[in-house]
Amino acid sequence: MKKIVCCGFSLLLLALAAPRPAASAAPLKVGYSDWPGYTVFEVAVQKGWFKDAGVDVEFDWFDYGPSIDAFSAGKIDADCIVASDAMGAGAAGAPSKFIAIIDYSEGSDMIIGKPGINSIKDLKGQKVAIEFGLVEHFLLLEGLKRNGMSQSDVTLVNTPTNNMPQTLASGQVAAVGAWYPISGQALVSAPGSKRLFTSADAKGLIYDVLAVNPASLAAHHDDWAKIAAIYYKCVAYLMDPATRDDAIKIMAAKVQQKPDDYAKNVPGTHFQTLAEAKANYKGDAGAAINLHDSMALSDQFSLANAVYKASQKPEDYIYPSITLAMP
């Protein structure tokens, strides 16, 4: 009996001493939302390209604002985000590194006037609904400036971007600011409404990037390099006439749009090919404002509108080495 007890005790000691299997590392988490430049990642999600590349990553779907909140709270490792908004998050304590240039807006961000409002100049003395401090606010001020006006010429009504269709339809404001697909919904919600100023009038003013938490980037650099490469692969798939329809079908389904309608709006986003992103990181965006200069302009906007108090330097955010190293 003692022998049996002794053996049992020895087995227990061996079990306790044996190394335990390592806990599975948590997957990297990326936030994305309904802007076309972000939604194109859905192609890779559906095709299994991340698994094929050996990257353990989850893409979490958000409304845009909550995705920034999640990144700022450390709930996700990276976010698909407007560069200017990433600077705002950085100033508030959530810095990031831009490992891929996603796109610049070329028409899908809009200031839309209700019926009877036909130009930016018609907004003088009127109410305009925008989400304070975010990208449409930036776009509105550019439109006002180009028409010899300033923010003091209008009354801003702080409104969540997702609420813009019903806000415009109510007739209680003269105009709203929204990005696609919400901008498209707003135009439909108020028959006779009109685009007053869009990002096509200021190419390169609004950039989208893949922004990564610096600690996560340092710990998982190779994985992030693969994720960035897959982004440009998604763009190539969308740009290829042979696969474009399939990409649009996948993207449209994610945002519950009809593929034909979605296809008409894709040109409003200037997706960055790998070659374009490489040139842009070096300061050349062709006829558009480059990322560096766009960020300098948005920094001025954010300081003037108390989005943050301390100037943010583009070089603290821009991380070109991953993209520039790609073949």
Describe this structure in a few short sentences:
The protein has 327 residues and is α/β, with parallel strands linked by helices.
Structural commentary:
The protein is α/β, with parallel strands linked by helices. 44% of the residues lie in helices and 17% in strands. The protein has helices at residues 2-17, 36-39, 41-47, 49-52, 64-72, 83-91, 135-146, 164-170, 182-189, 214-219, 221-239, 244-254, 259-265, 274-281, 291-304, 321-324, and strands at residues 28-32, 57-61, 78-82, 97-105, 109-113, 127-130, 155-158, 175-179, 194-198, 207-212, 269-271. Helix 3 crosses helix 12 (244-254) and helix 6 packs across helix 15 (291-304). It is globular, with a radius of gyration of 23 Å. It starts with a helix and ends with a helix.
Instruction: Specify the biggest β-sheet.
Output: 6 strands, mixed
Q: Which structural class should the secondary elements be placed in?
A: alpha/beta
> What is the molecular shape?
globular
End-to-end distance:
70 Å
Helix residue percentage:
40-55%
Average pLDDT number = 93
Helices, strands, pairings?
Layout: H1 2-17, E1 28-32, H2 36-39, H3 41-47, H4 49-52, E2 57-61, H5 64-72, E3 78-82, H6 83-91, E4 97-105, E5 109-113, E6 127-130, H7 135-146, E7 155-158, H8 164-170, E8 175-179, H9 182-189, E9 194-198, E10 207-212, H10 214-219, H11 221-239, H12 244-254, H13 259-265, E11 269-271, H14 274-281, H15 291-304, H16 321-324
Parallel strand pairs: 1-2, 1-3, 6-7, 6-8
Antiparallel strand pairs: 3-10, 4-10, 4-11, 5-8, 5-9
Helix pairs in contact: 3-12, 6-15, 8-9, 11-12
